[in-house]
Design a protein that fits this description.
alpha/beta; five-stranded mixed β-sheet; 5 strands
Amino acid sequence: MSFPVLVFDIETIPDVAGLRRLHGLDPVLSDAEVAELAFQQKRAQSGHDFLPLHLQRVVVISCVMRAGESFKVWSLAAPALSEAEIIQRFFDGIEKFTPRIVSWNGGGFDLPVLHYRGLIHRVVAPRYWDLGDGDHADSRDFKWNNYISRYHTRHLDLMDLLAMYQARANAPLDDLARLMGFPGKLGMEGSKVWEAWQAGQADAIRDYCETDVVNTYLVYNRFRLMRGELDRETALAEEAFVRTELARLDQPHWREYLENWTRPA
């Protein structure tokens, strides 16, 4: 792989402090009560309780970095880091490496959340926002291929691209990963993150996010095969390489992940 690839995924919870500020809620209400009031209001308005993106507090960004011979999985996560630190460090990585970034629904969820929350926290991300008018030497290249434009490839939203940019054609990552023989989601799903956070299970949220970002990387690897960037032998070798690298980590969530990974035919 001649250029670094950064695959990412985020997990969020309700921005309880923001909800208190916007709605002037009684300080005696617990965080759970504040969130439930917001959920009830959203259900009454639209029939679901998915909060607006600007009210999603980022608690984890998990990443896979594939560069040269290196494969690295890590997370920027609360409570060790504040939301501001999580987001700033993510954009610092883009500033340093200028990778291709790859996501599943990153254009529809992850990146807009990071934009809004980054504004709130005074995050600085000049390389990410460069549209060809920046000060660095290769800025002109960003006019034709940047992170922001939907049809450019510095950010590759696999879900959006595979669906031909039509929401009705979107497929769930979990389904697609498992159909390919990959483990898919293990132990949790996005709708359970707030419940897990309230129960003090921050590590479980981080582990879940990390396994999901590896699912995304493996689907991306399969996409590269379909696109003709890899031949079958190289694509299978990459899957074997990922298995080996995950086994080296020797952590419970990776052991479970590998146990649920079907061997290719």
